[in-house]
Amino acid sequence: MKLTDHTMIMDENCILHQSVMLLADKWTLLVLLSLIQGSKRTSDLLRQIGGISPKMLTQTLKKLEAAGIVERRVYPVIPPKVEYSLTETGKGLEEVLSTLYKWSVRRVLANS
Fold first, then answer.
1. CA-closest candidate to residue 41, choices 79, 85, 76
2. 81-106 pLDDT, tens digit each
3. Which residues contact 85 (CB under 8 A, 6 or more apart)?
4. Which of 22, 30, 66, 90 is the most exposed place for a label (fewest CB within 10 A)?
5. Three-state secondary structure readout of the chain
6. Nearest-CA neighbor of 49 among 65, 29, 64?
7. For the CA atoms of the chain, what is the radius of gyration?
8. What average pLDDT does range 2-16 have in this prediction?
9. Which of 78, 72, 87 is nearest to 41 (CA)?
C-alpha cells in the first residue's frame, strides 16, 4: 500500500489505520516523547507532561503497554518503585517522532 492509496485508510483492518488510532489521542505522543528520553517513574512523567491527570497517564501507559510499546518494570523495594520505558518496538517510533518534532519547530518558526 502506498501512502497515496486512500481507499484503504478508512478500513479498520488497515495497519496504518490501526497505528494512527493507537497514537492519535491527546496524551499518547507526549508520553512517548517523554519516554524517548529514557526510563521514567510515574511522578517524572506527571511533572514533565503538563496537564495530564494521574488517571489519564495510567490509562495511556496501560494502553501502550498492552500494545507492546511501553514496558513497566516493578522493582522489589519498599516503597515500591515502578519505571516505564520504551520496548524495542516503541524505540522504533523515535525516528518518526523526531521527524514530527522537527516539522513542528519549522512550522512554528515559519509562522512567527
1. 85
2. 999 999 999 999 999 999 988 999 99
3. 35, 38, 39, 40, 70, 71, 73
4. 66
5. CCCCCCCCCCCCCCHHHHHHHHHCCCCHHHHHHHHHCCCEEHHHHHHHCCCCCHHHHHHHHHHHHHCCCEEEEEECCCCCEEEEEECHHHHCCHHHHHHHHHHHHHHHHHCC
6. 29
7. 16
8. 67
9. 72
pLDDT at 1 exceeding the cut of 60: no
Half-sphere exposure of 105 (CA within 13 A, CB side): 6
Max Cα distance, the chain (Å): 54
Report the pLDDT averaged over residues 24-42. 95
Give the list of residues 6+ apart from residue 37 with CB closer than 8 angstroms, or none. Answer: none
**90 C-beta neighbours (distance < 10 Å), count:** 20
